[in-house]
Design a protein that fits this description.
This protein is an alpha+beta fold and about 100 residues long. The chain has a domain at about 35-95: Winged helix-like DNA-binding domain superfamily/Winged helix DNA-binding domain (Arc Repressor Mutant, subunit A, Orthogonal Bundle), CATH 1.10.10. About 50% of the residues lie in helices and about 20% in strands. The protein is built from four helices and two strands. The protein has helices at about 35-45, 50-60, 65-75, 80-95, and strands at about 1-10, 15-25.
Length: about 100
Amino acid sequence: MKVAIEIALTIDGKRSVLGMIPLDFTLHAPEAKRISPRQEQVLDLVLAGKANKEIANAVFLSERTVKFHVTSLLRLYGVSSRTELIASLKTSLKK
């Protein structure tokens, strides 16, 4: 979305425009989660039902790093298991 802020000064009832400040920004839905590209890769594989070892092999990471990413995703989405994560994401996609 592109908008501009107008800077103006009014003296003795006479208005003078001093300038414009252009702004360019994107609005995000409040429920949208921000995840890194790597977390997105891991999430896609979790949603495909892959185990940590399979994910690690697919994206060239250690199992420990994959476990860290999965734990971060669970915390971000407010769930405690992969099953809950998958269910919550499928529910949010239906809305």
